[in-house]
Each structure stands twice: as C-alpha cells, then as structure tokens.
Amino acid sequence: MTSSPQPADAGVFLRAARRQAVPYTPVWFMRQAGRVLPEYRELRTRWTLLDICRQPQLCAEVTLQPLRRMPLDAAVLFADIMLPLVGVGIELELVDEVGPVIKEPIRDRKRMSALRALVPEQDVPFVLETVRLVRDEIAPARAVLGFAGGPFTLAAYLVEGRPTRDFAQTKALMHGSPDVWHGLMGRLTGITVAYLLAQVRAGVDAVQLFDSWMGALDRDDYQAHVQPYTRRIFEAVRRTGIPAIHFGVNASTLLGEVKGDGADIIGVDWRLPLDEAWERIGFDKGIQGNLDPGALMAPPDAMLRKAADVLRRAEGRPGHIFNLGHGLLAGTPLDNVIRLVDFVQSHSAVPVASVTAE
C-alpha cells in the first residue's frame, strides 16, 4: 500500500512531518480530546470511556471538540491504547485515575498462546468508523492522527495486570521466560500492525506509536527484547507512505536506538532540552515536543516563557511539531491551552514569501 506525495498545499502538520518549510510550527496535544474540556467532562457523567469509543458518532464528536475551541493542526483520535486488546477478547476495565486493570494477566505460555490475531473490521469497527467520520468533518488542511500502543507498553499492562512503577513482573518474564516473552511480543506486534493499517485505510493522515513505558528499559534490553518488534511496526507503516511518530516517556537514554527504528518523527518528553534531544536523534528526523505539561498549570506568563524556550531551541528548523512532553494533565486551565496554541502559531510564524514547497 502506498500513498501519493503530499501536494504543495498540504496541511502544516503534514508538511512539518515531512520536514518541509511551513508558515508556522504546527501544534497539537496528547490527550487534547478530553480532560480539560467541560463539554467532555459533561459527557463522562453519562458514559464511560469505552462507551464513548464504541459509539462512532459520539466518539467523533469528542475527537472534534478541541478543534472547535482552538485552531489545532491535528485531530487525534479519541481512543485508548487498549482497544485492540479489548477487540481480541482481553477482559479489562479502564479505571479512572488508575488505568487498565486486566482480569487475567498473561504470564505463561498457555495464556500467551491464546492471544489471537486482530481482525480490525470485525473487532474494532467503531474505531474505523470514527476515523471516517472525523476525516469527513474537518478540512483537508487539518490532519487526522491515529495511534496505537507500543508493544512493550501493551505487554507490560498484560503481564502486570495494572499500571506499575517498577515493571517487576514484566522484567521477570522477559528475562526468565524469553520464549514466552518473544511469543507475546510477536502477537502484539501483529495486532498493532493490523490496527494501524486499518486506521490508514479508514483515512488517518499520520500515526503515532505510544510506547509510553519503554523508558523503563536499559539499552541492551530495549535492543534485544523490544526493538525488533518496533521496527517491524514502523516498516509496515512506512509502506503506506504516511508519516509515523514514535513516542516514549522518560526515554532520553534510548534516543540513540530509537532514531533507527523507522519513525519519521521522534516525540520527546521534557526531561531533555529539545535542541539536545534533536542532536541525539539527528536533524534528518523530525522532532515532536516538548513542553512540560506541568507548565500549563502555571500563570500564563510563566507558561509562555517555557514555550518560547522550546521554540528557541528548535531554531526554526524544518521538522518541528510542537507538543507537550506527555499528555495534558487533569485540571489544566483551558484558557492556558488556548493561549498556548495562539502563542506557538503566532510566535513561530515566518513571512509567507519565505515559505516554499519542496
């Protein structure tokens, strides 16, 4: 599957993702659909997260809510990384303020072998219909961003049974039962590839792989136990021709490895200054980030000083997509989010005459 090259008038997000000249730095936020929006919180008094995801019209509305509030450059699909696992029959509960809780964790060959392949049109049709509805609703210049959970993060949830800080059970399985670990990672990779390719067919313009917890690994373990599967995912996406983003939290020590995994853009958190992160990644890659989400809880002047520092470190190089170093925090003032979008777009703007198509 391949896609045609982006036209000269492609949206700012897609042009930045391809490291082309842009009139301003595009901006979107992880967790922009939800949390900070009162209209979303009102819906959550009636519906659970999974209830919303399973109703395409409602899910599309939640996805579009932030774009009605501010001129964001991408609509990110409202979903949860566990949806494809729900689709293949994993029994879990998404507990507010906790995360996914798995009824029967996978820690042996028998349960690993029972994890079946994903058939997206059968198992998660609501996700694909939501993508189609959102793509039909918004202007072509605004990107629709799909996503999936990375294989290590999905495996960690399945093995631990719930969110963890030490990943003790996960690492015990990785080192103590490598055959089970690699079997699990192979199955999760197949599920993730099928899920992302189905989103591409439904109409997303780019995808992000959230391997949120890969920063819990050292370099050797990442290379041996995760990297081959991550590369398989990005190779499958690369063949579609759409841009791909790779993001992990607290993963600065892995940037030297991640840069070769096949993504077009590397998302970085706030723990390493953006210019230093970009040097580690290499300027032949795009970069996404990396304002500390906590800065949005501060008074506006303080927040904007931090945002200005991110833009300064990017130095106007092609390939920067402004985002936070992780998702929007619950309780973030909505006015600060709106101010930040305006600030990034206006303070990164360049004269129209200097922007040319490549």
Instruction: Provide the structure class.
Output: alpha/beta
Largest sheet: 7 strands, parallel
Unreliable sequence segments: 1-9, 352-358
The number of distinct helices, counting runs of at least 4 residues, comes to 17
Radius of gyration: 19 Å
Q: Which features characterize this protein?
A:
disordered C terminus; 17 helices; alpha/beta; single chain; TIM Barrel; disordered N terminus; 7-stranded parallel β-sheet; two-stranded antiparallel ribbon; 358 residues
Q: How does this structure look, described?
A:
This protein has 358 residues and is α/β, with parallel strands linked by helices. The strands form two sheets. The protein has a seven-stranded parallel beta sheet with strand order 1-4-5-6-7-8-9. A two-stranded antiparallel ribbon has the order 2-3. The longest helix has 25 residues. The chain has a single domain, classed as Alpha-Beta Barrel (TIM Barrel). The chain is globular.
Helix-strand blueprint:
Layout: H1 12-17, H2 38-44, H3 49-53, H4 56-69, E1 74-76, H5 83-87, E2 92-95, E3 99-102, H6 109-113, H7 120-123, H8 125-137, E4 143-149, H9 151-160, H10 168-176, H11 178-202, E5 206-210, H12 219-225, H13 227-238, E6 244-247, H14 255-258, E7 265-267, H15 274-281, E8 286-291, H16 300-314, E9 320-324, H17 334-347
Parallel strand pairs: 1-4, 4-5, 5-6, 6-7, 7-8, 8-9
Antiparallel strand pairs: 2-3
Helix pairs in contact: 4-8, 9-10, 9-11, 10-11, 11-13, 16-17
